[in-house]
Write a structure and sequence with these properties.
Largest sheet of chain A: none
Distance between the termini of chain A: 22 Å
Largest sheet of chain B: none
Number of strands of chain B: 0
Shape of chain A: globular
Oligomer: heterodimer
Order of helices and strands of chain B: HHHHHHHHHHHH
Number of helices of chain B: 12
Order of helices and strands of chain A: HHHHHHHHHHHH
Shape of chain B: flat
Distance between the termini of chain B: 89 Å
Radius of gyration of chain A: 22 Å
Largest interface: A-B, 57 and 51 residues
Radius of gyration of chain B: 25 Å
Helix content of chain B: over 70%
Strand content of chain B: under 5%
Structural class of chain A: mainly alpha
């Protein structure tokens, strides 16, 4: 079973790579390098802050877009190319086919995010080294303690280890979106419909926490508003829960237990959406 | 279609199960967000900016506004600088840099511009405007500290403001001391707190003891300003000759 799933995942990855989805990495590199050149007019604290915000924001949006667009095209294209019939005519259960497709996208997302992280770390490290060298040169006549203080200030504004945990949560969010897109694409008739629905889900998902709080705490809301809010709170994922990088960049310490809880929530979402996708896909007439 | 409806029902059932966990997590780490996204901010940002801020691009929206504030500063449009920094700090209350920059622009740059404002012939009104900018700077830092009580740089900035702009050495000393007590504080915070205290009438003895403790602590603390303030206090407090620091250190 695992061999079959891996074979489908490998094929999906190759197929997506041929569609030149990795061009998104080129755009990311341009955003990163462009912003780092533009930010040279700011002080190093401002520059580092904005560089981190822009890079992590770009990682989040590119990985989410990639997850939605890449997954939305999988099933409709296989149906259009009639590849799906060839695969399912063999002793491959439908859930294995879906799992293989999903894993293919997840591997693609992991590779993309790893490359983006490497680029980000590289650009950031280069800027940090430049600032450290400049600071050392500017403070050559200062005492050792003053120089050390200045260098420590530069290093304090640089990358912290927990930023990588934040990036892992970005990956988890992208995986969740991929699983949800797969579910939508099992009953959608076109990939345009899937993408449109998923863009709406993306925005609603970020508002889900606000809707949930309003639903649970406001007594004065009418039944219609309450029903709508309940639907949003129960059916949509809380995507805001996966935006930990904002806090991390701001220097807020996120406990490891909180990361674990977020990861667990993410895995549950992926599992549930995959199960729902499998359930609907089994009833789909091909 | 029946399967789709059943699947959505399954998602809703899962929704009921995940609700307490999700809400608990949300309350644990996003308490401030409910305060952030109030109607007031929605009016300030405009609809698109507000949606962007809610869609996980809060940091990017804040950075964009920060860059706009930087441009407004270059054009010396102080009202706009204040307006934009209020938005930036509302969006990103946990970034000390933004509070610090907002206070610096108000208390140092805008206040200096107000004093040099040739379009205002009356000096009294210039001074009034300058003090209003000091107060705005102080307000940014106080709110920054409220949002980030563990960040020494904001206490330091407030101490600097009390020293440079408000001429309040007692408060400056207190805030340097608060900064020094926090992890990640600069090594000079303790020294600066004692220096500031040495200017306070009636607290010379306490200042002397703190400066003396620093002096005794290590050679690295025996900096020219510390020795100068210590000598001044020895004279003022009439410290016996045998207890004074040696002259050669001066």
């Amino acid at each position: 079973m695992i061999r079959r799933i891996l074979a489908i995942a490998g094929n999906t990855l190759t197929d997506l790579t041929r569609q030149k989805v990795f061009y998104v990495l080129l755009i990311f590199a341009l955003v990163l390098i462009g912003s780092s050149v533009f930010l040279a007019r700011f002080s190093f604290q401002q520059e580092f802050q904005i560089l981190k915000d822009i890079s992590l924001g770009a990682m989040s949006i590119f990985s989410s877009l990639l997850a939605i667009v890449a997954t939305a095209t999988l099933i409709p294209r296989d149906i259009e190319d009639r590849t799906i019939y060839t695969v399912l005519a063999k002793p491959v259960p439908r859930f294995e086919y879906l799992l293989g497709k999903l894993f293919g996208v997840l591997i693609l997302l992991a590779i993309s995010l790893a490359v983006m992280t490497a680029l980000f770390v590289l650009v950031f490290h280069a800027r940090e080294q430049t600032v450290l060298t400049e600071t050392t040169r500017q403070m050559s006549s200062a005492t050792h303690e003053q120089l050390q203080d200045a260098l420590d200030t530069v290093r304090a504004s640089a990358l912290r280890r927990d930023i990588f945990e934040g990036i892992a949560v970005i990956l988890l969010k992208a995986c969740l979106l991929a699983a949800l897109t797969l579910f939508v694409s099992t009953f959608a008739t076109t990939n345009i419909f899937t993408i449109t629905v998923m863009v709406a889900v993306y925005f609603i998902g970020h508002l889900q926490a606000t809707a949930r709080e309003y639903w649970m705490t406001q007594q004065s809301a009418g039944w219609l508003a309450k029903t709508f809010l309940a639907i949003v709170a129960l059916i949509f994922p809380d995507l805001q829960a996966f935006n930990l990088v904002d806090e991390i960049v701001a220097g807020v310490a996120i406990p490891l237990a909180f990361f674990a809880k977020t990861a667990l929530l993410g895995f549950f979402y992926i599992l549930i959406y995959t199960l729902a996708a499998t359930f609907v896909f089994y009833g789909k007439e091909l | 279609m029946r399967r789709v409806v059943l699947a959505v029902g399954m998602l809703a059932a899962f929704g009921v199960l995940k609700l307490p966990a999700e809400r608990g997590m949300s309350l644990q780490h996003r308490q401030s967000e409910n305060d952030i996204f109030n109607l007031d901010l929605r009016e300030k940002l405009g609809q698109l900016g507000f949606v962007a801020a809610l869609s996980g691009f809060r940091a990017i929206v804040a950075d964009y506004l920060f860059i706009q504030a930087h441009v407004a500063w270059e054009r010396t449009e102080w009202g706009r600088v204040l307006f934009l920094f209020r938005q930036v700090t509302t969006l990103q209350p946990h970034v000390p840099l933004f509070w610090d920059m907002a206070a610096w622009h108000m208390a140092w740059n805008a206040s200096a511009a107000a004093m040099n404002d040739t379009s205002q012939p009356r000096m009294a009104l210039r001074v009034k405007a300058q003090r209003e900018y000091f107060a705005l700077g102080k307000d940014f830092l106080e709110r920054g500290i409220k949002n980030n009580p563990d960040k020494p740089e904001l206490y330091e900035a407030l101490a600097r403001l009390y020293h440079d702009k408000l001429d309040d050495h007692e408060q400056a000393s207190e805030f340097y001391a608060k900064a020094a007590a926090l992890p990640g504080a600069h090594s000079y915070d303790r020294r600066f707190s004692a220096y500031e205290l040495s200017y306070c009438e009636g607290r010379e003895r306490e200042a002397y003891e703190r400066l003396r403790a620093l002096y005794n602590e290590s050679d690295r603390e025996r900096l020219p300003t510390l020795i100068k303030r210590l000598k001044f206090l020895e004279e003022k407090l009439a410290i016996p000759a045998e207890k004074r620091i040696p002259d050669r250190e001066n």
